[in-house]
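Structure first, sequence second, as always.
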């Protein structure tokens, strides 16, 4: 005993209905695969996280306000990568050290 209808018109209707769903599922799979490819490509092309960053203030001239270890979650959006030497110089000039990532400790500056 089958759970499918016995007549040809209803069987064809079911076949058409399921073929439509298979097409929709295949399209969704293709879109998901494309998103995954784009995500992998984006990650591969992303520049490396800098070792040190300088957080900058607001406005014209945007003065430095804080030194961070690269990738610090507390660093604001206004930042630029700097070298180890620039980080040391900034700390020596009195620029604040982030209290979360502690670049002064990472750089061996105690004071």
């Amino acid at each position: 005993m089958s759970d499918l209808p016995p007549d040809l018109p209803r069987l064809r209707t079911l076949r058409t209905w399921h073929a439509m769903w298979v097409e929709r599922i295949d399209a969704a799979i293709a879109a998901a695969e494309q998103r995954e490819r784009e995500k992998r490509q984006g990650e591969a092309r992303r520049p490396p996280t800098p070792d040190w960053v300088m957080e900058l203030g607001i406005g014209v001239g945007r003065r430095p306000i804080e030194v961070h270890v690269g990738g610090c979650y507390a660093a604001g959006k206004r930042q630029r990568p700097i070298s180890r030497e620039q980080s040391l110089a900034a700390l020596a000039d009195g620029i604040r050290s982030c209290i979360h990532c502690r670049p002064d400790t990472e750089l061996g500056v105690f004071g």
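Margin note: The chain has two domains: 1-46, 52-107.
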